Amino acid sequence: MEATIVTLPGDGIGTEVVSEGVKALQATADKYGHSFTFDEGLIGGCAIDATGAALPDGTLQACQRADAVLLGAVGGPRWSDPAAKIRPEQGLLGLRQELGLYANLRPVRLYEPLLDVSPLRPERLRGLDLVVVRELTGGIYFGPRREATSNGGTAYDTMVYTGDEVRRIAHIAFRLAQQRRGKVTSVDKANVLAVSRLWRRVVTEVAAEYPDVTLENMLVDTAAMHLLRQPTDFDVILTANMFGDILTDEASMLAGSMGMLPSAWLGENHAGVYEPIHGSAPDIAGKDIANPIATILSVAMLLRYSLDLEHEARAIEDAVEAVLAEGYRTLDIRVDGATPVGGEEMGDLIAEAIRERGSPEPAHVSEVSTRAHVHQEKKSHA
Ligand code: NAD
Known about the structure:
Elements: E1 2-10, H1 13-32, E2 35-40, H2 45-51, H3 57-65, E3 68-73, H4 89-99, E4 103-109, H5 122-125, E5 129-135, E6 145-146, E7 156-157, H6 163-179, E8 183-188, H7 194-207, E9 214-219, H8 220-229, E10 236-239, H9 241-254, E11 262-266, E12 273-276, H10 293-305, H11 310-325, E13 328-329, E14 339-340, H12 343-356, H13 365-381
The structure holds nicotinamide-adenine-dinucleotide.
């Protein structure tokens, strides 16, 4: 397969981890005979410095033409003035809106070798494998708002959803659940918020179209608690923008570190944006200690959802697991007896494992076609 992948390293550790993601893509191309063309663009703080815009036109146009986008992270103290007119995060919000990427998939899987790294007891975590489907372009981050002009003034943000916005994201969650363990937990605050009551009614309506999937409704406060009490109960968590933002940071700790969690932004078309859930981590930037695994696992999602290369996606996930099982650890996931490595060495080890392990031919043909289905079905429900 030939594909053009735009890389947007961004700021801080974004540049370090994206380099390791590209190594994984190159190794995959070599192993499986694909040809990936990389086109690097500016976003965030570095783009503001170079062009005055957080999302320069050239970057947006390259992303619109690409088969997929691999993003690092944006932001840092240098651009952190909240009163500034142009801020790095505007690059992310602009990209999501311009590309119509309204679904954020955040898988939380505990790799067995990291059982002892997580703060929860191993018996609560063994087998943890859930996906948060977070609505990305609506809700309280985008509703009408007012800044207070003084400390005695009034400020507000408004959580707004239309039934159509809820319906399209719900379909993605149910489709995904059909390919997994067949359960959707829709998380809301329906005992208090009108917008959540609409959310719950629409999700229940959509659920009727998926008799093979079980729907469970849960209040967000209960979900926050249950994620720590019995996280393996969850399969697909469907939730609104802000609730998903908060719950996935909580869930990231179950997987051992922020440095382990990948994500995808998806919309109507195959082209999506893939990024680690962590930020630019200015505290560790430039020291070669950032864990690149979240980005490398984001590359696996890119292969799965934008290029329909399920076998190759699994090869990357298996390579990550193998390297962790051999005891190699970056600082954030270190335990006694582990072999300490920097971010770059971790990337090299995983690239090497991709080249050396796995079968050259796709072994899971039926799953290749099932995974490809998510997008096609999603389109028809938009
Ligand atoms: P952060 O995710 O950058 O860092 C939080 C903590 O996790 C830090 O201690 C950091 O060292 C650690 N960490 C993060 N990624 C790691 C990795 N791969 N390996 C090892 N340790 C890792 O969050 P923050 O400190 O709140 O924010 C820093 C900057 O990043 C801010 O400017 C913020 O706005 C921005 N940010 C950007 C995004 C994004 O680009 N999507 C997301 C979140 C935060």
